Amino acid sequence: MSEPALSCQSLTCEAGGREIFRDLSLEFRAGERVAVMGPSGSGKTTLLTTLAGLGPPASGQVLVGGVPLARDPSLRSQVALVFQSYGLLTLLTAAENVEVALRAAGRTGAEAMAAAVGPLARLGLAGHADHLIEELSGGQQQRVAVARALTLGPRVLLADEPTAEQDAGHREIVLTELLAVADRGGALVIATHDDEVAARCDRVVELRPAVRGAVGAR
Ligand SMILES: Nc1ncnc2c1ncn2[C@@H]1O[C@H](COP(=O)(O)OP(=O)(O)OP(=O)(O)O)[C@@H](O)[C@H]1O
Protein backbone atom coordinates (compact mmCIF):
# COMPACT_ATOMS: atom_id res chain seq x y z
CA MET A 1 0.00 0.00 0.00
CA SER A 2 1.22 3.54 -0.72
CA GLU A 3 2.44 5.83 2.03
CA PRO A 4 -0.24 7.79 3.90
CA ALA A 5 -0.61 11.43 2.84
CA LEU A 6 0.05 12.41 6.45
CA SER A 7 0.94 10.44 9.51
CA CYS A 8 2.39 10.80 12.97
CA GLN A 9 4.41 8.29 14.92
CA SER A 10 4.59 8.13 18.72
CA LEU A 11 3.66 11.80 18.95
CA THR A 12 3.80 13.40 22.38
CA CYS A 13 2.89 17.08 22.76
CA GLU A 14 3.25 19.41 25.72
CA ALA A 15 2.03 22.94 26.40
CA GLY A 16 2.71 25.14 29.40
CA GLY A 17 4.92 22.43 30.88
CA ARG A 18 2.07 19.90 30.80
CA GLU A 19 1.63 16.83 28.62
CA ILE A 20 -1.39 17.18 26.32
CA PHE A 21 -1.26 13.74 24.73
CA ARG A 22 1.29 10.96 24.57
CA ASP A 23 2.48 8.38 22.08
CA LEU A 24 -0.14 9.10 19.42
CA SER A 25 0.27 7.29 16.08
CA LEU A 26 -2.18 8.08 13.28
CA GLU A 27 -2.42 7.76 9.50
CA PHE A 28 -4.46 9.88 7.10
CA ARG A 29 -4.73 8.55 3.54
CA ALA A 30 -5.41 10.26 0.24
CA GLY A 31 -9.14 10.58 -0.36
CA GLU A 32 -9.97 10.02 3.30
CA ARG A 33 -12.14 12.24 5.54
CA VAL A 34 -11.36 11.97 9.23
CA ALA A 35 -13.01 13.75 12.16
CA VAL A 36 -10.96 14.44 15.29
CA MET A 37 -13.20 14.69 18.33
CA GLY A 38 -12.79 14.96 22.07
CA PRO A 39 -13.78 17.27 24.88
CA SER A 40 -12.56 20.84 25.13
CA GLY A 41 -8.92 20.82 26.15
CA SER A 42 -8.28 17.26 24.95
CA GLY A 43 -5.70 18.51 22.44
CA LYS A 44 -7.42 18.75 19.06
CA THR A 45 -5.90 22.12 18.20
CA THR A 46 -2.52 21.02 19.53
CA LEU A 47 -2.69 17.92 17.33
CA LEU A 48 -3.67 19.82 14.18
CA THR A 49 -1.05 22.56 14.58
CA THR A 50 1.62 19.94 15.23
CA LEU A 51 0.52 17.92 12.18
CA ALA A 52 0.76 21.17 10.16
CA GLY A 53 4.37 21.51 11.28
CA LEU A 54 3.79 24.76 13.18
CA GLY A 55 5.62 23.55 16.24
CA PRO A 56 7.84 20.60 17.04
CA PRO A 57 6.37 17.84 19.21
CA ALA A 58 7.99 16.99 22.54
CA SER A 59 8.80 13.63 20.94
CA GLY A 60 7.77 11.55 17.97
CA GLN A 61 7.47 12.72 14.40
CA VAL A 62 5.11 13.93 11.69
CA LEU A 63 5.53 12.52 8.17
CA VAL A 64 4.15 13.83 4.86
CA GLY A 65 3.99 11.10 2.24
CA GLY A 66 6.21 8.99 4.48
CA VAL A 67 8.97 11.61 4.76
CA PRO A 68 9.59 13.20 8.18
CA LEU A 69 8.78 16.92 8.27
CA ALA A 70 11.84 17.44 10.43
CA ARG A 71 14.01 16.12 7.57
CA ASP A 72 12.31 18.22 4.86
CA PRO A 73 10.49 21.30 6.23
CA SER A 74 9.44 22.27 2.68
CA LEU A 75 6.83 19.49 2.94
CA ARG A 76 4.81 21.88 5.11
CA SER A 77 3.61 23.49 1.88
CA GLN A 78 1.61 20.31 1.14
CA VAL A 79 -0.43 20.74 4.31
CA ALA A 80 -2.92 23.59 4.82
CA LEU A 81 -4.59 24.48 8.11
CA VAL A 82 -7.85 26.34 8.74
CA PHE A 83 -7.05 27.88 12.11
CA GLN A 84 -9.66 27.84 14.87
CA SER A 85 -9.05 31.57 15.31
CA TYR A 86 -8.85 32.04 11.50
CA GLY A 87 -5.36 33.63 11.40
CA LEU A 88 -6.43 36.33 8.92
CA LEU A 89 -4.76 39.67 8.26
CA THR A 90 -7.48 41.96 9.54
CA LEU A 91 -6.39 45.13 7.69
CA LEU A 92 -6.54 43.37 4.32
CA THR A 93 -9.66 42.42 2.38
CA ALA A 94 -11.05 38.91 2.10
CA ALA A 95 -9.67 38.54 -1.44
CA GLU A 96 -6.28 39.95 -0.43
CA ASN A 97 -6.00 37.38 2.37
CA VAL A 98 -6.46 34.57 -0.13
CA GLU A 99 -4.11 36.22 -2.64
CA VAL A 100 -1.35 36.68 -0.06
CA ALA A 101 -1.43 32.97 0.76
CA LEU A 102 -1.27 32.06 -2.92
CA ARG A 103 1.63 34.41 -3.59
CA ALA A 104 3.47 32.96 -0.61
CA ALA A 105 2.94 29.59 -2.27
CA GLY A 106 4.64 30.87 -5.42
CA ARG A 107 1.76 32.03 -7.62
CA THR A 108 2.07 35.33 -9.49
CA GLY A 109 -0.07 38.28 -8.45
CA ALA A 110 -2.41 37.96 -11.45
CA GLU A 111 -2.81 34.19 -10.96
CA ALA A 112 -3.48 34.70 -7.27
CA MET A 113 -6.12 37.37 -7.88
CA ALA A 114 -7.92 35.14 -10.39
CA ALA A 115 -7.72 32.04 -8.21
CA ALA A 116 -9.14 33.80 -5.13
CA VAL A 117 -12.47 34.62 -6.76
CA GLY A 118 -14.00 31.13 -7.17
CA PRO A 119 -13.58 29.74 -3.65
CA LEU A 120 -14.80 32.97 -2.04
CA ALA A 121 -17.90 32.92 -4.25
CA ARG A 122 -18.60 29.22 -3.56
CA LEU A 123 -18.46 29.99 0.16
CA GLY A 124 -21.06 32.73 -0.20
CA LEU A 125 -18.63 35.64 -0.07
CA ALA A 126 -18.80 37.01 -3.63
CA GLY A 127 -20.26 40.25 -2.32
CA HIS A 128 -17.66 40.52 0.43
CA ALA A 129 -14.42 39.84 -1.43
CA ASP A 130 -13.35 43.48 -1.24
CA HIS A 131 -14.40 43.98 2.37
CA LEU A 132 -11.77 44.34 5.06
CA ILE A 133 -11.65 41.35 7.42
CA GLU A 134 -12.41 43.60 10.36
CA GLU A 135 -15.69 44.53 8.63
CA LEU A 136 -16.84 40.89 8.40
CA SER A 137 -18.78 38.82 10.92
CA GLY A 138 -17.11 35.91 12.69
CA GLY A 139 -18.85 33.41 10.41
CA GLN A 140 -17.80 35.31 7.30
CA GLN A 141 -14.21 35.51 8.53
CA GLN A 142 -14.22 31.77 9.14
CA ARG A 143 -15.35 31.18 5.57
CA VAL A 144 -12.52 33.39 4.28
CA ALA A 145 -10.12 31.18 6.25
CA VAL A 146 -11.67 28.09 4.64
CA ALA A 147 -11.45 29.68 1.17
CA ARG A 148 -7.78 30.51 1.72
CA ALA A 149 -6.92 26.93 2.66
CA LEU A 150 -8.97 25.46 -0.20
CA THR A 151 -7.39 27.74 -2.78
CA LEU A 152 -3.96 26.35 -1.95
CA GLY A 153 -5.10 22.91 -3.20
CA PRO A 154 -3.15 21.11 -0.50
CA ARG A 155 -2.41 17.40 -0.35
CA VAL A 156 -3.74 17.47 3.21
CA LEU A 157 -6.27 19.93 4.58
CA LEU A 158 -6.55 20.25 8.36
CA ALA A 159 -9.56 22.24 9.57
CA ASP A 160 -10.01 23.23 13.22
CA GLU A 161 -13.73 23.49 14.04
CA PRO A 162 -14.39 25.04 10.62
CA THR A 163 -18.19 25.16 11.04
CA ALA A 164 -18.29 26.41 14.63
CA GLU A 165 -19.40 29.94 13.66
CA GLN A 166 -21.75 28.96 10.81
CA ASP A 167 -25.54 28.94 10.66
CA ALA A 168 -27.13 25.77 9.28
CA GLY A 169 -27.08 26.90 5.65
CA HIS A 170 -23.49 28.05 5.68
CA ARG A 171 -22.39 25.00 7.65
CA GLU A 172 -23.63 22.87 4.76
CA ILE A 173 -21.80 25.05 2.23
CA VAL A 174 -18.54 24.87 4.20
CA LEU A 175 -18.86 21.13 4.71
CA THR A 176 -19.61 20.48 1.05
CA GLU A 177 -16.50 22.42 0.00
CA LEU A 178 -14.29 20.69 2.55
CA LEU A 179 -15.57 17.17 1.86
CA ALA A 180 -14.92 17.71 -1.86
CA VAL A 181 -11.19 17.91 -1.05
CA ALA A 182 -11.24 14.15 -0.53
CA ASP A 183 -13.12 13.61 -3.79
CA ARG A 184 -10.17 15.30 -5.51
CA GLY A 185 -7.74 12.93 -3.81
CA GLY A 186 -6.73 15.04 -0.83
CA ALA A 187 -6.82 13.96 2.79
CA LEU A 188 -9.20 15.93 5.01
CA VAL A 189 -8.93 16.12 8.80
CA ILE A 190 -11.62 18.07 10.68
CA ALA A 191 -11.49 18.78 14.41
CA THR A 192 -15.09 19.16 15.54
CA HIS A 193 -17.53 18.98 18.44
CA ASP A 194 -20.39 18.48 15.97
CA ASP A 195 -21.69 14.89 15.69
CA GLU A 196 -23.34 15.68 12.36
CA VAL A 197 -20.03 16.84 10.88
CA ALA A 198 -18.33 13.70 12.19
CA ALA A 199 -21.08 11.55 10.67
CA ARG A 200 -20.17 12.91 7.23
CA CYS A 201 -16.58 11.72 7.63
CA ASP A 202 -15.23 8.22 6.95
CA ARG A 203 -14.00 7.69 10.49
CA VAL A 204 -13.50 9.40 13.83
CA VAL A 205 -10.33 9.70 15.89
CA GLU A 206 -11.25 10.47 19.47
CA LEU A 207 -8.84 12.15 21.86
CA ARG A 208 -9.51 11.15 25.42
CA PRO A 209 -7.76 13.34 27.99
CA ALA A 210 -8.24 10.83 30.80
CA VAL A 211 -6.17 8.19 29.01
CA ARG A 212 -3.39 10.08 27.29
CA GLY A 213 -2.61 8.83 23.83
CA ALA A 214 -5.62 6.55 23.63
CA VAL A 215 -7.65 6.87 20.48
CA GLY A 216 -10.78 5.18 19.35
CA ALA A 217 -12.13 4.94 15.85
CA ARG A 218 -15.39 4.08 14.26
N1 LIG B 1 0.26 27.93 24.84
C1 LIG B 1 -0.27 27.19 25.79
N2 LIG B 1 0.18 27.28 27.06
C2 LIG B 1 -0.32 26.51 28.05
N3 LIG B 1 -1.28 25.59 27.85
C3 LIG B 1 -1.75 25.46 26.62
C4 LIG B 1 -1.28 26.23 25.52
N4 LIG B 1 -1.94 25.84 24.40
C5 LIG B 1 -2.81 24.89 24.80
N5 LIG B 1 -2.69 24.65 26.11
C6 LIG B 1 -3.46 23.67 26.88
O1 LIG B 1 -3.42 22.46 26.14
C7 LIG B 1 -4.64 21.76 26.30
C8 LIG B 1 -5.17 21.36 24.92
O2 LIG B 1 -5.57 22.55 24.24
P1 LIG B 1 -6.19 22.47 22.80
O3 LIG B 1 -6.50 23.87 22.39
O4 LIG B 1 -5.28 21.67 21.93
O5 LIG B 1 -7.52 21.65 23.08
P2 LIG B 1 -8.80 21.44 22.15
O6 LIG B 1 -9.19 20.00 22.27
O7 LIG B 1 -8.54 21.96 20.79
O8 LIG B 1 -9.88 22.35 22.88
P3 LIG B 1 -11.21 23.08 22.30
O9 LIG B 1 -12.17 21.98 21.92
O10 LIG B 1 -11.69 23.89 23.48
O11 LIG B 1 -10.79 23.96 21.14
C9 LIG B 1 -5.56 22.66 27.09
O12 LIG B 1 -5.61 22.20 28.42
C10 LIG B 1 -4.92 24.01 27.00
O13 LIG B 1 -5.18 24.77 28.15
UniProtKB/TrEMBL annotation:
Q: Name one Pfam family in it.
A: ABC_tran
- A cellular component term, taken from the record's GO annotations: plasma membrane
GO molecular function per UniProt: ATP binding; ATP hydrolysis activity; transmembrane transporter activity
Nucleotide-binding: present as a keyword of the record? yes
Q: Which SUPFAM superfamilies match?
A: P-loop containing nucleoside triphosphate hydrolases
InterPro entries, from UniProt? Answer: AAA+_ATPase, ABC_transporter-like_ATP-bd, ABC_transporter-like_CS, ABC_transpr_LolD-like, P-loop_NTPase
Q: Keyword annotations for this protein? A: ATP-binding, Nucleotide-binding
KW Nucleotide-binding (keyword) present: yes
Task: Provide the ABC transporter domain boundaries.
Answer: 6-217
Do you know which SMART domains this protein is assigned to?
Answer: AAA
> Which PANTHER family does the UniProt entry name for this protein?
IMPORT ATP-BINDING PROTEIN, LIPOPROTEIN-RELEASING SYSTEM ATP-BINDING PROTEIN LOLD
Give the family, as the similarity comment puts it: Belongs to the ABC transporter superfamily.
- The name of this protein is ABC transporter ATP-binding protein
**Organism field:** Spongiactinospora gelatinilytica
